Task: structure prediction
Amino acid sequence: MLGFSFFAKGLLEIGMLFLFGQGLLWFLLLLLSFGKPQENIVYALLQVITKPLFAIARFIMPKGLEEKQYGIVAFGVLFSLWTTLVLLILPELCLSAGFSSASACVAQYR
Result:
């Protein structure tokens, strides 16, 4: 169970990093290339990689959003899934490390 959880957590983290990188690159290219980030090959590659994440955000949200807002929605969905997964993994991880409960594990690392 922990192996699958760590794999899923890693995929969520990679997706969040790609979305963050695409947003940061869009902002930097917008400043440096006078409004033409789509002409950059790295930005185009990030668009291809994050296309499924944008499709999920379009499916979840109503039709009134602008195209730019779907990236924020996709990042929020991934972050909430990541947080939920970490909170579900934490008790099992603490028990496998030899602690009597998850609260004992958290109390030691405060």
